[in-house]
């Protein structure tokens, strides 16, 4: 095969990957942002996480063999990028003793996330991934690293805790 044909084939593959990335971005940008917002409780940091996740996708799209599991890959990457950014932010805060800006509370999405304050971090992730992102318990289990039965159990306990907490508040 000639060098020109190889270059044309590479160019076609690049254009195909760019189109796939654009389609994936349009389909999942909201899910990635919401999950990042749930974990960070900071709109700006959630935007940074979302940007980094899709940047990682552009760099690693050739490694993703099963495109049907792209949402799981994106949300797992979102969790990992968020944890890394929060660690970095925590380190910088300790190092420079600079307070974080408060998260806005006027947005209805943030009100939803405030309702989840009575839950611990993992339970909050499970509820958000199931309700907001629409993932099944098995998919959530693979993202978080728990068994599907454990995820189902924690999900149901979390719903009961939310219900109990807000019944007490609105008595």
Plain-language structure description:
The chain starts with a helix and ends with a helix. α1 crosses α5. The protein has helices spanning 3-40, 43-60, 70-96, 108-115, 121-131, 137-144, 148-169. The protein is mainly alpha-helical. 77% of the residues lie in helices and 0% in strands. Residues 100-105 have low confidence and may be disordered.
Describe, in short, the structure shown.
With 171 residues, this protein is mostly helical.
What is the helical fraction, as a range of percent?
A: over 70%
CA gyration radius, whole angstroms: 19 Å
Q: How large is the share of residues in beta strands?
A: under 5%
Low-confidence stretches: 100-105
What coarse outline follows from CA principal-axis ratios?
globular
Secondary-structure element string? HHHHHHH
Number of strands: 0
Q: What is the count of DSSP helices, taking H or I runs of 4+ residues?
A: 7
Biggest β-sheet description = none
Specify the oligomeric state.
single chain
Write the layout of secondary structure elements.
Blueprint: H1 3-40, H2 43-60, H3 70-96, H4 108-115, H5 121-131, H6 137-144, H7 148-169
Helix pairs in contact: 1-2, 1-3, 1-5, 2-3, 3-6, 5-7, 6-7
Keyphrases for this structure?
single chain; 171 residues; mainly alpha; 7 helices; 77% helix; 0% strand; globular
């Amino acid at each position: 095969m000639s060098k020109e044909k190889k270059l044309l084939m590479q160019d076609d593959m690049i254009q195909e990957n760019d189109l796939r990335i654009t389609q994936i971005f349009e389909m999942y940008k909201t899910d990635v942002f919401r999950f990042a917002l749930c974990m960070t409780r900071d709109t700006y940091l959630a935007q940074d996480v979302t940007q980094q996740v899709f940047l990682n996708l552009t760099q690693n799209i050739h490694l993703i063999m099963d495109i049907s599991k792209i949402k799981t890959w994106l949300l797992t990457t979102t969790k990992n990028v968020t944890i890394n950014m929060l660690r970095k932010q925590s380190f910088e805060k300790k190092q420079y003793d600079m307070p974080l800006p408060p998260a806005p509370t006027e947005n209805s999405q943030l009100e939803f996330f405030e309702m989840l304050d009575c839950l611990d971090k993992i339970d909050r992730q499970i509820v958000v991934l199931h309700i907001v992102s629409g993932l099944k318990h098995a998919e959530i289990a693979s993202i978080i690293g728990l068994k599907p039965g454990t995820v189902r159990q924690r999900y149901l306990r979390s719903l009961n805790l939310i219900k109990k907490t807000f019944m007490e508040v609105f008595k």
